[in-house]
C-alpha cells in the first residue's frame, strides 16, 4: 500500500480530537438537538468562519438537563469567596463542586470548542482527596480549597499535553507542572481543564488545526478573542470559577472584552510565568517583551480573591517573581491635604481613532465617576510617546525572526491558519546592536510616559488610574480584530491593566446612516473604519455584544489596579442601572 499523501498533522489532529472526545463521559454529552445548527467541522471552522450564524448558547448548560438543579446552583450562585466558604464549612463537598463545574465545562465545550484537555477524572479524584483531608483534619488544604480553576493550554499540567494547538507538540504529556499550576495546587485549587488558543498564540481569534475554532457563546458571528480565548469562553459560561491566561499583546484583556467578563494583566513578577510551552526560543522573553500570566473571572472580587493568595507566595514558586503583598505596595508620600482618588481619561492611542460606541462608553464611565463621591476625573492629553509603543512592542515580539515556531509547524507539514498565512513569514533575528537600540527606545518612551501620572508635574496631584479603550472597536466579527496597540503598549510599559465590562451594545449605539468624519490617521485607522463603514459591515452584528473599558495603573501598582477596577465597576454599574431605571443623572 502506498504511503498516505496527507501531511502528518492531519492524522495527529484526528487522533487528538478523538482523545478529547473520549475525555467527556457519555452521560455528559448533549443530544444532537441541543447543539445549534451550523456547527462547522473542525477544518471548516478555520476556513468557512463567515458561515456562522448569530447564536447565543449561554443558556444551554441550564437547559441541557445534564446538570442537576443543585449543580446549577453551585455553578451559578456563588462568587469565589462564597464558594470557598461553603466548602470550608462542609455545606458543599469539593467533589460535588468539581463534578458540577466539570459537567458545565463539558457542555460549554460541545457548543464552543473551548477545551483542549478535559481533566475531569483527575479533578474529581483530587476533590475527593481534599474532602478526605478536611474530614480527617478539620482544616482545608489551603485558602483555595476545592476552587475549580482552568488554565490556558500553554501551562503545563503533569500528565497532560501542552500542545498549544500544534500537531508536532501533541501526544507529549508534560512531566511536571508549570510553577503557577504548582502554586494553585498548593493553595488547594482543583484544575479541571485546559483551554484553547490560536495557532502560534500570535492571533486574536482562538483557532488551530488541532482543535478548531473556539466560538463566542454570546454570538458566534463574533470573535471569542485570543490568545486566551478558550479561557474567556469557559469563564463566561461558568464552566470555571477562575481561568488563568497569558498576556503579551492583550491576550487576557481581549478575551475578557469579547466575552463580557473581567481580566487582569499584572506587572511582571506578580504571577509565576516560567516552564510553559510557548513554541518560542527558550529565554526569548528575557531579552524581548516579557509576557505575564493572570486571571479571568466573573467579577473584580473574584480576581482579587485569587490574586490575594498568589501575590504573597509567588516568589516561592517562580524564579521570575518578586516579593509582594496584596496591599498598597508603596509608602504614602506626604501630602498637603486629603486627596481625592483621581482617574484619568485617555481617549486614544493616537494611531487609531475609537469608533463612536467606544468613545461613548468611555464618556459614560467618566460621567459615572464624576458623580461618585471622593473621585476626581481628569483628561489625559495624548502623550506623543504613546504613538511609538505599538511599533516598539511589535518589533520586540519578533526579535528572533519567528524561525522556531515555523520550524515546529513544518515538522508535520502543518500550514498556517488562514488569518496568519499572509501575515507570517521568516525574518532575520535582530543583532545585539539592533536589540540594544530597540531597548533604548523603549526606555525613552517609558521615561516620557511617566508624565501621565502627575498633573502639572506635582506629586501631590497624582493620577491613580487611567481608563482607556481595550480596543478602538466593539467585539468584531471572526478574524476582524484590529489595533492591538491599545493593549500591547501596556505590556511594553509593564503597567498592570484590566478589563471591566460596562454594558451591552444597544440599538441607540448603531447610529444608522451616520458616518465618521474625522480624518483617517493611517492604515490601522483605515482598517478600523471598515468595522463601522456600513458598506463593509452590518452594524447590527454588534447588538447585545459587551462594551468594556480598560483600566491601567503605574508599574507594580497591581493592588491599586484592583482597587481602581472595583471603584470603576461599581460606579459604572450604578450609573447604568440608574439610567436604565429612568433616573435623572
TrEMBL record:
Signal peptide: none annotated. It catalyses: a monocarboxylic acid amide + H2O = a monocarboxylate + NH4(+). It holds the Pfam family Amidase. The active site is at residues 152, 227, 251. Its EC number is 3.5.1.4. One of its GO terms (molecular function) is amidase activity. Substrate binds at residues 201, 227, 248-251. The keyword Hydrolase applies. The keyword Hydrolase applies. It comes from the Eukaryota. Belongs to the amidase family. This is amidase. It comes from Aspergillus sclerotialis.
Amino acid at each position: 500500500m502506498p504511503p498516505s499523501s496527507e501531511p502528518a498533522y492531519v492524522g495527529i489532529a484526528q487522533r487528538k480530537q478523538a482523545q478529547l472526545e473520549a475525555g467527556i463521559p457519555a452521560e455528559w454529552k448533549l443530544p444532537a438537538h441541543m447543539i445549534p445548527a451550523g456547527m462547522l467541522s473542525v477544518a471548516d471552522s478555520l476556513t468557512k468562519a463567515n458561515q456562522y450564524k448569530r447564536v447565543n448558547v449561554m443558556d444551554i448548560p441550564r437547559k441541557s438537563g445534564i446538570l442537576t438543579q443543585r449543580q446549577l446552583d453551585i455553578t451559578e450562585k456563588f462568587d469565589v469567596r462564597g464558594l470557598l466558604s461553603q466548602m470550608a464549612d462542609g455545606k458543599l463537598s469539593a467533589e460535588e463542586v468539581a463534578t458540577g463545574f466539570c459537567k458545565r465545562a463539558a457542555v460549554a465545550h460541545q457548543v464552543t470548542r473551548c477545551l483542549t484537555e478535559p481533566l475531569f477524572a483527575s479533578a474529581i479524584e483530587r476533590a475527593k482527596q481534599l474532602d478526605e483531608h478536611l474530614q480527617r483534619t478539620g482544616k482545608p488544604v489551603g485558602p483555595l480549597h476545592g476552587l475549580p480553576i482552568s488554565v490556558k493550554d500553554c501551562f503545563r499540567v503533569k500528565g497532560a499535553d501542552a500542545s498549544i494547538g500544534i500537531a508536532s507538540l501533541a501526544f507529549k504529556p508534560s512531566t511536571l507542572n508549570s510553577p503557577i499550576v504548582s502554586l494553585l495546587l498548593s493553595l488547594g485549587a482543583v484544575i479541571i481543564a485546559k483551554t484553547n488558543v490560536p495557532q502560534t498564540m500570535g492571533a486574536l481569534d482562538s483557532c488551530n488545526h488541532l482543535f478548531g475554532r473556539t466560538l463566542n457563546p454570546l454570538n458566534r458571528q463574533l470573535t471569542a478573542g485570543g490568545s486566551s480565548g478558550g479561557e474567556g469562553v469557559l469563564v463566561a459560561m461558568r464552566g470555571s470559577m477562575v481561568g488563568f491566561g497569558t498576556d503579551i499583546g492583550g491576550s487576557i484583556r481581549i478575551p475578557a472584552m469579547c466575552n463580557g467578563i473581567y481580566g487582569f494583566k499584572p506587572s511582571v513578577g506578580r504571577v509565576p510565568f516560567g516552564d510553559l510551552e510557548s513554541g518560542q526560543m527558550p529565554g526569548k522573553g528575557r531579552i524581548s517583551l516579557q509576557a505575564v500570566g493572570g486571571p479571568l473571572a466573573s467579577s473584580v472580587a473574584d480576581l482579587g480573591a485569587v490574586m490575594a493568595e498568589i501575590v504573597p507566595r509567588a516568589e516561592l514558586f517562580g524564579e521570575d517573581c518578586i516579593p509582594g503583598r496584596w496591599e498598597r505596595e508603596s509608602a504614602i508620600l506626604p501630602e498637603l491635604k486629603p486627596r481625592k482618588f483621581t482617574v484619568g481619561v485617555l481617549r486614544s492611542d493616537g494611531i487609531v481613532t475609537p469608533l463612536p460606541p467606544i468613545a461613548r462608553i468611555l464618556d459614560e464611565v467618566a460621567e459615572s465617576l464624576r458623580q461618585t463621591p471622593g473621585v476626581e476625573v481628569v483628561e489625559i492629553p495624548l502623550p506623543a510617546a504613546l504613538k511609538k509603543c505599538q511599533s516598539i512592542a511589535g518589533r520586540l515580539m519578533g526579535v528572533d525572526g519567528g524561525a522556531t515556531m515555523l520550524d515546529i509547524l513544518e515538522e508535520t507539514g502543518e500550514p498556517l491558519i488562514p488569518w496568519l498565512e499572509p501575515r507570517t513569514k521568516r525574518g532575520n533575528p535582530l543583532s545585539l546592536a539592533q536589540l540594544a537600540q530597540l531597548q533604548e527606545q523603549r526606555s525613552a518612551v517609558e521615561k516620557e510616559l511617566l508624565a501621565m501620572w502627575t498633573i502639572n508635574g506635582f506629586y501631590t496631584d497624582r493620577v491613580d488610574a487611567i481608563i482607556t479603550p481595550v480596543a478602538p472597536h466593539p467585539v468584531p466579527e471572526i478574524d476582524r480584530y484590529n489595533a492591538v496597540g491599545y493593549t500591547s503598549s501596556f505590556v511594553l510599559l509593564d503597567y498592570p491593566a484590566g478589563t471591566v465590562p460596562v454594558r451591552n451594545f444597544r440599538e441607540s449605539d448603531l447610529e444608522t446612516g451616520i458616518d465618521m468624519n474625522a480624518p483617517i490617521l493611517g492604515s490601522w485607522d483605515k482598517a478600523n473604519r471598515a468595522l463601522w463603514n456600513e458598506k463593509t459591515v452590518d452594524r447590527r452584528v454588534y447588538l447585545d455584544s459587551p462594551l468594556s473599558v480598560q483600566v491601567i495603573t503605574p508599574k507594580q501598582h497591581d493592588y491599586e489596579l484592583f482597587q481602581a477596577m472595583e471603584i470603576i465597576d461599581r460606579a459604572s454599574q450604578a450609573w447604568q442601572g440608574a439610567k436604565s431605571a429612568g433616573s435623572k443623572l
